[in-house]
Amino acid sequence: MTVELRQEQRTMLWTLTMHAHDAASARPILGDPYAAELLDRVDDPPDLGLSLGGNTPLICARAKLIDDVARGWLARHDEAVVLHLGCGLDSRVLRLDPGPGVQWFDVDQEPVIDLRRRLYDEREGATVVAGDVTDPSFWSRFTDDLPRLVLAEGLLMYLDPAGVQSVVDGALTGGATLVADTVAPWVTWVAGLQPAMRAADTGFRSSTADLAKVAPRLVDELSLVDATATRTGGLTSTAVRLFALVPHARNAMVLQTYERA
Length: 261
Ligand SMILES: C[S@@+](CC[C@H](N)C(=O)[O-])C[C@H]1O[C@@H](n2cnc3c(N)ncnc32)[C@H](O)[C@@H]1O
Fold this sequence. Notes:
The protein is α/β, with parallel strands linked by helices. The chain has one domain (7-259): Vaccinia Virus protein VP39 (Rossmann fold). It has helices spanning 11-24, 35-40, 49-53, 56-76, 92-96, 110-119, 161-171, 185-191, 195-199, 208-214, 224-231, 234-245, and strands spanning 80-85, 102-108, 126-130, 148-152, 177-183, 217-223, 253-259. β4, α7 (161-171) and β5 (177-183) form a beta-alpha-beta unit. The longest helix has 21 residues, at 56-76. The chain is globular and about 50 Å long. The site of S-adenosylmethionine has 19 residues, from α1.
């Protein structure tokens, strides 16, 4: 299936490819059962190469951790709204299979959502929404009468600081919870050296510092470097544990949970 994706829109094919490789590996971290079949139906799947492909354990540990956090939250909220921002082609709604009281929204930019609509069957309780999460008017369509979980995986770093502020302002109404991964300031610079990022004409435009400036109350922070070390084995785990000893490396990428007050 041909896709016209530009810049950061294309990065969701990288994560999908990593999910597919992980699922086919001897020791899956995420074990996404849907990724390979979805990828097969995309005409122009990316070749990750060594440098991008090396991020597979980190990206799959991130997805697994967010699945676990979301599953825990859903277990405490029968009636709720979940906004899955920058969803790409991720199958989280199928992996978590939320109950009938949950209104799930998979949100991304128009071209990604067009593709998603073509590749996924409709699922009761799940709606796909095309929109720009940095546009303040985008947020008015969602009710804030119900407890709200907002998931943003691999998204915030592609937004500039003003975009991060718009997401925080739109997401965190009333009793909402925002779960998002962000990167340390030095990672935004290193990511700019990544050939695949340059070829896609994209890059990281904000960091944990930008999120901390605008988000109200941090209630949890988990190191995704640690999460990768504990979810892998052998040489990979050893290498990640050694990396974590380098100053500032443990918090290269973190999963943060914010609430309004
Ligand atoms: C790295 S991909 C992550 C996809 C998915 N969360 C995953 O982990 O597989 C980043 C996604 O964010 C989406 N995105 C970037 N900026 C956005 C915006 N302003 N509004 C909505 N989606 C956006 C991109 O289109 C892309 O699908």
